[in-house]
Amino acid sequence: MKTGYCCLYGKANAGKSTILNSILGLKIEATSPKPQTTRYNVQGIYNDEDSQIVFIDTPGLHSPHGLLGQILIQEAESAKIGVDVLIYVVDATVPLVNEKLALEVGKTKSPVVVAFNKIDLVPLADGLKRLNEYKRLLPNAEFVQMSALTHFGGQDLIKAVKKHLPEGEAFYPKDQLIDRPMQFVWSEMIREKCLNNLNQEVPHSIQVEITHTETSKVTKNFVIYADIIVEKASEKSIVIGKKGQMLSRIRHHAEHTIGNFMKQKVELELYVKVVSDWRDNPSKLKEYGYKE
Ligand code: GDP
Ligand code: MG
User: Fold this and answer.
1) Most ligand 1 atoms within 8 A of CB, residue of 7, 8, 11, 13 to mutate
2) Is 217 found in the same domain as 141?
């Protein structure tokens, strides 16, 4: 069978995590219109009759903010090295003003597949013009037009990737979708609801840590306890909201998504905590699983 690793690489907000979710047919990763939604290199595992492809989703390339920002850039850069295929995800709606990143991608040793994404949002003529600009910059790359949000083009992407994969044994059991513990998936789902419900500044300072789980003695439901960590007391009151309304909305949305994912009724117990400037604190970053 064809097996190998490929890396989803590109600017923040291009749609890398949406592509991964669409290919896996499941939502395991936080996506949002806010840049820097993805925090870790996540591996999603695609299986079919004759292949196993490990997709590494990287934090978007974005100007670094503090120590966490620097770690995110390093993570994305390190994921690029040694993969069988580099998938360069391009947002078709954004004019090509700076050619640097595309030219950089062209210099990598791995074969490049360009996922020209969000074509549902651009008029055909503009899209083709932009596509041709990228083709000129990356003459050796293969191009796939996609609309990950509407699940268009995923199979074309798989086909393009497969061409470059070696024959080999599967790396993971066939039923495994992600190389992370379940707690990671839950915390990402809670963090996504925070990102989607809060505006602007607060979301980037949020870290979600699952503390423990239990079966409720009363309702018999599965209960997940999680801390929502922010950097300032003012952020804590925003997350909680007037009369706890914001936190309650985040909880309802997350209970729904996690419940669907787990195929059972799930209750969440969320606590908002302040850890001052954790994004610049090396020991906290380590505790939360960010590699330096
Ligand atoms: P990432 O930072 O590259 O991982 O980007 P995300 O996957 O988080 O996507 C960023 C935003 O673009 C989200 O709001 C997605 O819903 C949206 N998005 C991603 N792909 C598409 C697409 O093909 N079409 C449209 N209309 N929106 C998309
Ligand atoms: Mg992402």
Assistant:
1) 13
2) no
